[in-house]
Amino acid sequence: MALKKSKEYKDQISSKAETCPHCGAPIKGRTAKKTRKWYERTSVTLCVAAGLIIVGFGFIHVITGVLSPFELPFDIVLKESFGYRETFINARKIISLPYSAAKIKYPLSCKALQSRNYIESGSVFETRMSRHLRENMKTWQAEFERSLNKPELQWQDKLLGQTPGNEMDSEDPNACNNRGIVSAREGQYETAIAQFTRAFQRNPAFAEAYYNRGLVDLTIGQLGQAISDFTNAVEIKPEFIEGYKIRGPIHVAMSQYEQAISDFTKVIEHNPDSAETYFRRSLACYVNGWYDKAWQDVYKIQELGLSVPAEFLTLLRAASGKQ
């Protein structure tokens, strides 16, 4: 009897535990609230903080490889507009590049470095850097050409004639071209230009007359007109490789590097063993920031058994990050 009472008592206790003490409503199945782990409590905070950090990077440049005014190994510069381009700037890498290539490849980084005076700015600085680069390219080109031991032709020796002209007919295109060649060799450049002009006016398909006038234009410093004349020559005769060979260096002189690369490529397609053209193209690729293509031409030159100027290789390694 005692055992039975005890069981009934337990059942009553259990029943009371499963009902609300105030209203008597059943609460069976309700579970006690668990205490959350620390990382569960902070996960939302961490996500919000991470989001704010990511958004914050859209407003700043982080410059490494410098010593900031606060003597820290990095610096922070506000961006001119919101975005994530060039958020992290490696100052040493950019400074090792040719300024023209750095400006093309990392325009925002260059502005940020200039705003903090890590590199100079202004038209005087850009002019000086461009002049220094052109001087280096000329030095490397001359050094490489000396290693080829090739006789250097004077520009007058590159003038081209077709067939002997009818000297009795002053308006014969070949006769005009030939007179132009004679005048050019005598230094009478205005007369030469007039004769070459008369030659292709009489024969619009006279590619050699355009080419010859382009040589005179180049000699007297009219680079734009020279480009136009060589372009007419190769448009008339797409296989006229001499036109591409001379137009390419003019494009380089005018900082038109992609056009120069295209011209050098045309020459190489015609003459795959032209080491001089491979080197010219590698220089243009280097200045334009196309380092992989520059290395391809360097490797081709080395396959031909020739060496590349050491100073150029040093700067190309620094710019491309190759050891």
Task: Walk me through this protein's architecture.
With 323 residues, the chain is mainly alpha-helical. Among the domains are: 60 residues, no CATH class; 166 residues, Tetratricopeptide repeat domain (Serine Threonine Protein Phosphatase 5, Tetratricopeptide repeat, Alpha Horseshoe). The protein has 15 helices and three strands. A three-stranded mixed sheet has the order 2-1-3. The chain is elongated and about 125 Å long. The N terminus is likely disordered.
Task: From the structure above, extract its key features.
single chain, 323 residues, mainly alpha, Serine Threonine Protein Phosphatase 5, Tetratricopeptide repeat, 3-stranded mixed beta sheet, 63% helix, disordered N terminus
**Total of helices:** 15
Q: Unreliable stretches, pLDDT < 50, 5 or more residues?
A: 1-5
At the fourth CATH level, what is the homologous superfamily of one domain?
Tetratricopeptide repeat domain
Report the CATH architecture of one domain: Alpha Horseshoe
CATH class of one domain: Mainly Alpha
End-to-end distance, in Å?
A: 96 Å
The name of the CATH topology of one domain is Serine Threonine Protein Phosphatase 5, Tetratricopeptide repeat
Q: Spell out the helices and strands N to C.
A: HHEEEHHHHHHHHHHHHH
What is the tally of beta strands?
Answer: 3
Give the overall shape. elongated
Strand share of the residues? under 5%
